[in-house]
Design a protein that fits this description.
- The complex is a heterodimer of chains A (253) and B (250).
- Chain A has nine helices and ten strands.
- Chain A is α/β, with parallel strands linked by helices and 253 residues long.
- Chain A has two domains: 169 residues, 3-Layer(aba) Sandwich (Rossmann fold), CATH 3.40.50; 66 residues, no CATH class.
- In chain A, strand 1 and strand 2 form a beta hairpin.
- In chain A, helix 4 packs across helix 5 and helix 7 crosses helix 9.
- Chain B has a two-stranded antiparallel sheet.
- The chains are: A alpha/beta (253), B mainly alpha (250).
């Protein structure tokens, strides 16, 4: 591995109280500053794995280490972007984005100033005082992303963030996401069920097997990142990665 | 209200009833239905009297105390019942029994236990109001979006913050509905409690006027009590409408 790992999982397993075994023997290192994706058939436990890293679910066995500390719950170095957005319906965009800072007790002026900066970054500067129900799915997820960026965590965990967003918005969003993460130098852990999305976005793709999920393969697409979005989608490295993933996943479907 | 394609204020519905009432009253069918105009006049003569002021203040006090108790106990209990599953199941059964039980039938028993006085009325108001407050709070907290709680946790929310910044606000529409229904039932509680005790507040007035066939005064007090209940319900409705937009957006 080229870079030091920021997240390490050692023999992580999860069996739910109901007896369902979701994850088995996951040992994995995720490099700092890279975008890693968990990809696998539905029900393979990829969201569970992400929530274990987030500290929202505790593993039934094994350990997760983040920045050299053992995870026992959520922490300020990790921010989560939710599949269903999880925006407070009674709060404006501004307050939603500032919510993480509000929970930490940052004074109102200060946190709103920070929130405004990230609202501008995700391109919602004229929507500050709107409420979530007045926004489209794509805009809601921008709010969710701004909220995660606002607490300035090193690691952004994203749980199928684009699954409730239409295809056009999704593509545009993916491109912007890459730019944003480059500017903010984040480590991103991303869950998706879209092969193209994984291949397009990722430095490293972790393929998970069917339930109980275990690491079946790790792929590092050989893509020239400097190229434009359209060039990447025709890039040989990109197309090879898509092919390779599909060959493995086909057996699970 | 839409009538033949024209928008008519709801107020007109009342007006029609009042006209009908006046006609029946003027026709002198029955001693218990005096014309509404005379009822209103009686109202204006009663309202400034010391007797009414005394009755109103003691009724208001019983109502306020009973409601305060119902809220102070009902809200936390509803929250607990939603958060602690076993407690919710055990107490839920009782809440559902009491919410449909004829509480009025308990008032005579309360009298024999607590005594014939204001505290019995307070307890009656409490019993009338508390169960619907518990139930609605429980439903509201239970229906609160699980992923909002998860979101708050992931951003490092402490236990207390989960309640103050997520759960309570999320349940606000249901809690307000519970308070409104509780307040309306609480007004009934005051009147029924005082009627059965018959020596207190508006209950005493009702008892006195009806026993002496002073129907104009009797109806005047009925209208005053009705207006009071209506006003409280409208005040809470106002807040409900303010939070409605997010209740529907959840």
């Amino acid at each position: 591995m080229l870079v030091e790992p920021i997240v390490e999982m050692r023999n992580v397993a999860k069996t739910y109280d109901s007896g369902v075994e979701a994850l088995r023997e996951i040992t994995l290192a995720l490099p700092r500053g890279e975008l890693s994706t968990f990809l696998g058939p539905s029900g393979c436990g990829k969201t569970t794995l992400l929530k274990i890293i987030a500290g929202l679910i505790s593993p039934s066995d094994g350990e997760v280490w983040v920045k050299g500390n053992k995870v026992s719950g959520p922490g300020p170095e990790r921010a989560f972007v939710f599949q269903d957005f999880a925006l407070l319906p009674w709060a404006s965009v501004l307050r939603n984005v500032a919510f993480g800072l509000e929970l930490r007790g940052v004074p109102k002026d200060k946190r709103e100033e920070i929130a405004r900066k990230y609202i501008t970054e995700v391109g919602l500067s004229s929507f500050e005082s709107r409420y979530p129900h007045q926004l489209s799915g794509g805009m809601k997820q921008r709010v969710g992303l701004a909220r995660a960026l606002a607490i300035d965590a090193d690691i952004v965990l994203m749980d199928e963030p684009f699954s409730s967003v239409d295809e056009q918005t999704r593509r545009k969003f993916q491109e912007e996401l890459l730019d944003l993460l480059k500017i903010n130098q984040k480590t991103v852990i991303f869950v998706t069920h879209s092969i193209e999305e994984a291949a397009y976005l990722s430095d490293q793709i972790v393929l998970l097997s069917q339930r109980p999920g275990s690491v079946s393969r790790i792929i590092r697409p050989n893509i020239e990142r400097g190229a434009s979005a359209d060039e990447i989608r025709r890039d040989k490295g990109y197309l090879d990665a898509v092919d390779e993933i599909w060959k493995i996943l086909r057996d699970y479907v | 209200m839409i009538f033949y394609g024209k928008k008519i204020p709801l107020f007109f519905s009342l007006l029609i009833w009042f006209i009908l009432w006046e006609l029946i009253g003027q026709a002198e069918y029955s001693i218990i239905i005096p014309p509404v105009s005379r009822v209103i006049l009686a109202g204006f003569t009663i309202l400034p009297t010391d007797k009414f002021a005394a009755a109103a203040s003691i009724s208001l006090r019983s109502f306020a105390l009973g409601m305060a108790l119902a809220i102070v106990i009902g809200l936390p209990l509803g929250i607990l019942m939603a958060r602690v599953e076993n407690l919710g199941k055990v107490l839920g059964l009782w809440v559902n029994i009491f919410i449909s039980a004829p509480i009025s039938a308990l008032v005579p028993i309360l009298m024999s236990v607590i005594g014939i006085g204001e505290s019995t009325v307070v307890v009656t108001v409490f019993l009338f109001a508390v169960f619907v407050i518990i139930l609605d709070t429980q439903v509201g907290i239970k229906q609160a979006d699980k992923s909002l709680v998860e979101m708050a946790l992931s951003f490092g929310a402490r236990r207390g913050q989960i309640y103050t910044k997520v759960l309570l606000l999320s349940a606000l529409p249901e809690i307000l509905a519970g308070l409104r229904l509780g307040a309306i039932r609480g007004v009934k509680g005051v009147v029924i409690g005082q009627l059965l005790i018959a020596i207190l507040g508006v209950g005493e007035l009702f008892e006195f006027y009806s026993r002496n066939f002073l129907m104009e005064e009797f109806w005047a007090v009925v209208i005053v009590v009705f207006l009071f209940a209506f006003a409280i319900s409208e005040v809470i409705s106002f807040f409900e409408r303010r939070v409605e937009y997010y209740a529907s957006a959840r």
